[in-house]
Amino acid sequence: MNNTQKNLELLEELDALLDCGYSQSEILDLLTGELGRKYRQRLQRGQPWSAVWELEPELLLVLRAAELNGRLRDFVALALEHYRDRMAFQNTLRQKAAYPLLTLGFTLLMLLAFVFFLLPLFNGLLVELGGQASSAFWQWAFLGGLVLLLLNGKFIYARLLEKTGLRQTLESIQTLNLLAITDRAGIPLANFLSEYLRCAPPSALNRVYFYLAKGLPVGESLSRAELFQPQELKLLTIGGGVNYSRGLAYLLKNFKQDYQNKINKIIFYFEPALLLFTGGIIALVAWSFFRPLFSYTGLDF
């Protein structure tokens, strides 16, 4: 179970206990989940949740603000929605990526079966029939090429993000998530970013904070940071309020849909190419493998 699932489990447990009207001190004795048991002893010694809970930087800052204002219940509701949305988004992407990964895995297993199982078996048969054992050069060459492709998967993925615009879309989603969290938690964005950027890796948000620190409003800061198009920024009413919150929700939904559409487009072109590539590899390896048998029986092509 990864950290997201563990945190979601703890949040759901806290949400249920708070709904039942238990106080924070009573809740500590009732926690049964993995993280709850892990944190219980430190919490019972008087340490705050923000000093114990292993969260992302943005949620940790919101938790600290919630503790200062006595709004743990509000934080649990916000974080619960955040993690559920993230899990749903990640599950959608995993489902879309499953088929290409399974195809690559199947190809690798086929090559391993050719090289380590079928080739020795048929070589032994050829020798018994008086022929010469076939070379495994092409099988090993194709296998090595596929392994190199898999080992360079991270580099290929990074280039894919860059060339297709997925990286910029992900940055926009991250920014909108932060804006939505600060808006719902009632934390001034400039104060939030000044703390967040101390513990988070450098990103496009540094540019946003630079303009916010100069006293510019949120919309203009985002515009100058060039994270969004002008027509998108029009949805974020300057000054906050209901329209601002609705604009954030609408933009976040649109960017997530845009990200999924880009993934769909990549897979639409990638799947046939991958099938041709893996099918070609298997066909070439099979041909180099069975050709000695055809030659021995007089069926050389």
From TrEMBL:
The chain crosses the membrane at residues 97-117, 137-157, 266-290. It is found in: Cell membrane. It is a multi-pass membrane protein. Keywords: Cell membrane, Membrane, Transmembrane, Transmembrane helix. Its main location: membrane. The keyword Transmembrane helix applies. One of its GO terms (cellular component) is plasma membrane. It holds the Pfam family T2SSF. This is Type II secretory pathway component PulF superfamily. It comes from Termititenax aidoneus. The lineage of its organism: Bacteria, Bacillati, Candidatus Margulisiibacteriota, Candidatus Termititenacia, Candidatus Termititenacales.
